[in-house]
Amino acid sequence: MSTETVDAFQALADRGRREILMMVAKEKRSINAIAENFDISRPAVSKHIKILQNAGFINIEEKGRERYCVLNQDGFSEVQQWINLFEEYWTAQFRSLENYLATNVPPPKK
Amino acid sequence: MSTETVDAFQALADRGRREILMMVAKEKRSINAIAENFDISRPAVSKHIKILQNAGFINIEEKGRERYCVLNQDGFSEVQQWINLFEEYWTAQFRSLENYLATNVPPPKK
DNA sequence: TTTATATGTAACTTTTTTGTTACGCATTTT
DNA sequence: AAAATGCGTAACAAAAAAGTTACATATAAA
């Protein structure tokens, strides 16, 4: 795992990482607590978490020898913003459908 | 490229594929027209497009020997829905911040 | 009917990702 | 202080993804 990924979409490409985010959304969890819920080894989970952290999806709260993961909105916003770039396209599509219906389909008689 | 990917997030993991979507959002394009805008070979682009199609991001309109790519909302919706799963988390976060401010920070004197 | 164009696909090679084990280093616990 | 716990990281191995070239096929143009 090239743990230095910073790309939000690449970070989400892995099913396991998405599951980690779901888990952490339910409640703050330590790295080991997360690893217990997966089949893969703890070091592997550790790397996934680093990737998620670098991509801005989670923050780490250090507490003694434990490190708790909490969600970070940054990564989510980045994805959301990208999705929003297409907003214009869909509304244009919708308007052209609307227009088509208005000119080609007779209105329902009440 | 294991062209059979169906996972929306995996489909978006590749920068080039995201760029293809942006291009197609601007205007309907044939496979070759898309390939001309990339450094990679046409067959590589062809595979990317198949992946995007399988993941529900684009539809193909066949027209003679050409194949035009147009956006398909399905893939985008899938991503959007996943992002929305975390809605609850952020509103809870917000409410707890609100609550903190209300109980710990004095109101500004007008 | 030749020739050119648009595209798909198979067979590989190269790069990236993902995962593992082994080990090190703090911080708790006993 | 000694043992146990929580975690990071280096050094691989295995698997998946991405790209290439070579070739096949169908449609359009000459």
From TrEMBL, chains A, B:
Cited Pfam families: HTH_5
Domain HTH arsR-type as annotated: residue spans: 1-91
GO molecular function: DNA-binding transcription factor activity
InterPro entries attached to this UniProt entry: ArsR-like_HTH, HTH_ArsR_DNA-bd_dom, WH-like_DNA-bd_sf, WH_DNA-bd_sf
Coiled coil: none
Domain of life: Bacteria
This protein's name: ArsR family transcriptional regulator
Species annotation: Dyadobacter jiangsuensis
